[in-house]
Amino acid sequence: MTPQEKLELLLDLVAEALIESPLVLTPTTVENNQTFIRNGLLQKGAGEGVLALFQKEIKANQEDINSEYSTSFEGLASQIDFENYDISVEVQPDNDYPSGYKVMIVTFQNLPHYDITNFVQSFGDNFSTNPLNVSQFIPLKKQSSIVDVEKAEDYLDTNIFELLPTGDTRQARIIRFFQELNALLPPNEPQFDLDSDGFVDRGSDNNWTGSLDYSKDNSISYAQDNQDANIDEEDAFIHRLKQTANDTNSTRTIEDIYNTIEPYLKDILEDKAPPQDDRPEYQNQSSGYLQFRNLNQGIIIRNTNQDFVEGLDPNNPTYLETGFTITMWVRFLNKVSEGTLFNFGNPLRDDNPFGFTLETLVDEDSEKRYLRLLVLDNEGIHGTNPYPNVSHWYDSHLGINGNGKLMGELNSSDGLDLVDITQYLEVPTDFNEWYFICATYNPDVNERGSQADTDIPEYWLNHIVDDGTGTLIPIEFTNYSGYGNRSKVEIISRTDLLRARGFKV
Fold first, then answer.
1. What is the model's pTM?
2. Structural domain spans, the chain
């Protein structure tokens, strides 16, 4: 603080000590030391005139500053430790002070004491020139008038409606209601879904797991009834649920607010009606179909006019040159059964293996179902096998998930045991769904010349361009690349097929 600020502070403290001391027992003492404006001049002492009050104590007590002690008074104010002091007024006979009082600055921690009586008021002939430092206080006087009520009613109108409050407007009441509601609702909204699974986090009792902690942090009911609340009652907010509120707030909860306003919001709380589906319903077109109703049932297809079905002569396997496609509708009834869906010959038997098979496999650990098309090419004379007189199995497994495609390993049927079952086509587990299976064998695909270490499934489905440079970057898609698998299996559910064709499912 500056010296002037310290002086102003000291004068303030002296005035407060004097007004609280026994020296000031009546308003007269204050009035005798005040300054009044009379005839345009400032004059000391009580009487007629306008009371003069000053913004600062230094101005009001200028006599203290202008006394013969002024220099030492300002210097004293500059050296006082205002954090360790007290002002005391001693009222007692003292020969040195005819006024009968002494003003002392008492300091703590055994620091020096200061007698400032001579600074505060002059004595002797100069007594009136430096009045007591209480001129800035205004005395309060009690006054009353005796009124004859009966006579007053003859002259006064006691029904003065103009002075009654008119009340708030409707709009003002609405604004005030929302201001109060916002002030009493908890500022932090409940976090119902901390695990981000789209549902409220519930315990074994089906209640929200964070309900208790939220009450501890916000509820006035909890603060009133419990010592472990994290908020004081006067700072608490409206309780949330009726069932956990105390008697005082059982009808004054956030739930009560909701129940009150809910009937007014039926239109926006109602679940939206699903959009009208104008798509036509599919009608089966075929006159009939073959259905295997039980497991281990099958059908043998034969040509009654010739020894073999066209293209399926085991002695002349032209299907290895022309390729083939097998399609069928299948519905799987359990997770464990596996076996052949379609076969010609047996490409896995030890004695004279030939032909191809479409089969379903089941992973015992995951209980997931997979499909495999397996074709044996042991007829190098047809030109489909780049290694004449060497048997080779072409199956439908893909390079996927870090696993490449087995090539030379499939020159022996034992190589099939090296294939990870997850590299085959997985069938979704839905016992109510029909699946359309399309299995194809295309001998024109250069499978043995494909990039065996590639784990991009689309590459093995013949849909990624291979320019023979040994790289697939950038990846370019195509409807047919000529590289990848000769044997492929693809499926689509009846639901997805009908939806894709624009029918209602």
1. 0.49
2. 3-129, 208-272, 319-500
